[in-house]
């Protein structure tokens, strides 16, 4: 797709209303295909896909220099099992059974990587059948386990990544994954963690995606308010079980080829199939464009927990704290950690605005270097979006009922610092 370079200006980082996100219909299910690396800028992506929350596909040219595309793939386009075993044979990996439903997901187990590859090779030889079922290696934190490996480089379009910036800072987790699976492996219907964006790059193989714009999932719920496990199941046609299914739009369908990257917008539910033996790199990420959606998601999750244990509200002295603990066990974060998340993101940007980059930071692959690459106006945009969400969090009644004395700095002080940094930067 040929596009003129969109000049980065103050108007470009205009404080768009978050209410526009997800509120659109793709004409005929069309998804833009971005062909040329040299004519597609970060500004193009920000304007046309991040802010309006539209999906798109990047051509294989955007990944052709990745180490994994050279080394992990055999001459015939299939996974290079010998190379993978040589590099990662002793690793232990998470593996899901696609043939079994457990609650609303596939059950997982931990297997030695060499055992999984042995299974995969036998599965292929047996015409993609096995008494063990269809096993899918999912959510492997390979980058964290093998940081020295030349696997891939995150494209600049996805570099404003607050989730991984924060979780790297606290050294607890990350949201960078490798998926590997045989033809026929699949991921059930879901939306991504915290209603984040995701990007997924095929190292080899092909995937089929079924995408539903944010909000469409409401029409797919059953009479009890539950989402389907498999959005293609014939049972969805039963109006006594799924009374609003006939009001839903057909899904947007994407067939993703080897080397291509799919960008999944925030809050879009999707279901994914491997059409061939496939390996992919996947990131979940949040930034200033969708952090308000993450905050709305957390409020909805807490409200759901409160409804579930409402009968214990009066006899339980620490009911509000218990609700936070349950929410964190379900989602991975509570309100106080969300505050710390916003604080880390804000302080990194304030530091760059106030102090610039030292030579050591600019030479490394650090969050501050990424902030500098995207420019000072982007840092200001991030801070403005953080101010909006932090203001809402500080005024939230459930947040105010928590013991906030451990938060440093206090929310009011952080907000004051943020606003002062924005005003100074815009002088």
TrEMBL record:
The keyword Metal-binding applies. CDD domains: cupin_RmlC-like. Its cofactor is Fe(2+). PROSITE patterns: JMJC. It catalyses: L-lysyl-[protein] + 2-oxoglutarate + O2 = 4-hydroxy-L-lysyl-[protein] + succinate + CO2. The keyword Iron-sulfur does not apply. It holds the Pfam family Cupin_8. GO terms for molecular function: 2-oxoglutarate-dependent dioxygenase activity; catalytic activity, acting on a protein; metal ion binding; sequence-specific DNA binding. One of its GO terms (biological process) is positive regulation of translational termination. Keywords: Iron, Metal-binding, Oxidoreductase. InterPro entries: Cupin_8, JmjC_dom, JMJD6_ArgDemeth/LysHydrox. SUPFAM superfamilies: Clavaminate synthase-like. Residues 143-302 form the JmjC domain. One of its GO terms (cellular component) is cytoplasm. Belongs to the JMJD6 family. This is 2-oxoglutarate and iron-dependent oxygenase JMJD4. It comes from Eolophus roseicapilla (Galah cockatoo). The gene is Jmjd4.
